[in-house]
Write a structure and sequence with these properties.
This protein has 290 residues and is α+β, with helices and mostly antiparallel strands. Helices cover 53% and strands 12% of the residues. Strand 1 and strand 2 form a beta hairpin.
Length: 290
């Protein structure tokens, strides 16, 4: 390995390319090179511009299980593809498929009797903002559960929260492949992904809890409110704010699992406990980066 000094002129930083490398790849005064930032923070310099375009995917399957098809459609949607097409050997009743959770909200996805297609899938560039939105929606959902318990509105919030989680996945997968659509560090994308996943799991159990569980809902709301404060300024995340969040989560009482109702409450608590652990891991990472 060769170590070279960085040169600086004004606000610009530069270094000289090795003469032998330039000679080998016929790099001259009018040549162009491509520079790509890798996930580990290193830079890769290539002797020619390499343009990586999203692919067009095409599948032909004989599967008729609605749940399996649903998973394939969602996986194709959240990946950075230009388009995808799924063809089936026989016609299917897609009314059941449309009832699958999250599928009906996918933009650009068209369903026919023997084909599912998606052209011009949207590109999301800011998973951190999506996570903030997700947290705000959860807070609003809890308020509705406490005040009016409008079941239709609660279900709508759940759909929007699920959609936020899916768009976070889409944004992170796109950034970790080749698009690099966000300025966030890879480690930040990792923590955002973990938090959004547990938030979605928590909401799946949260919506089954009665509005009469006022003490429990209040304690969860307080945790989500503090989580929102942390997410609004992740740059100031440190071990002290993480410990405060852990203490807030610890105030949620354990629920002895006796029935479905107590099971859902305990699953909510466990999801928030896992999020507290992720927040602490993230905080320590932030301390290291200082």
């Amino acid at each position: 390995m060769e170590i070279r000094n960085i040169q600086k002129t004004g606000d610009m930083h530069y270094l000289y390319l090795p003469t032998s490398w330039c000679r080998e790849h016929k790099i001259g005064a009018r040549s162009k090179v491509s520079i790509e930032q890798n996930s580990d923070g290193t830079l890769a310099v290539s002797p020619q511009i390499t343009e990586r375009k999203p692919k067009h995917l095409k599948f032909s399957i004989s599967e008729d299980d609605q749940e399996i098809i649903h998973k394939l459609v969602v996986a194709s949607y959240i990946n950075p593809v230009a388009s995808f097409e799924i063809n089936f050997e026989k016609e299917m009743d897609f009314t059941k498929l449309l009832n699958q959770k999250r599928l009906i909200s996918l933009e650009s996805v068209e369903i026919d009797k023997k084909q599912i297609t998606c052209h011009g899938s949207i590109s999301i560039s800011d998973p951190e903002s999506l996570l903030k939105t997700m947290v705000r929606k959860i807070k609003n959902m809890i308020v509705v559960m406490q005040k009016s318990y409008d079941k239709e509105l609660i279900e709508r919030y759940e759909d929007e929260i699920d959609r936020s989680k899916m768009l976070i996945d889409k944004s992170i997968i796109g950034s970790l492949t080749y698009e690099r659509t966000t300025k966030l560090k890879t480690i930040d994308l990792y923590y955002i992904s973990l938090i959004s996943k547990d938030l979605e799991r928590m909401v799946d159990h949260m919506i089954k809890i009665s509005g009469k569980e006022t003490e429990f809902l209040d304690s969860v709301y307080n945790v989500i409110d503090q989580l929102q404060s942390l997410m609004e300024n992740t740059g100031s995340l440190n071990h002290k704010t993480a410990l405060q969040f852990i203490k807030k989560v610890s105030k949620i009482k354990n629920s002895e699992v006796k029935d479905i109702k107590s099971y859902d409450k305990e699953r909510v608590r466990l999801s928030l406990t896992t999020i507290a652990e992720v927040i602490t891991d993230w905080a320590i990472t932030k301390e290291i980066e200082k």
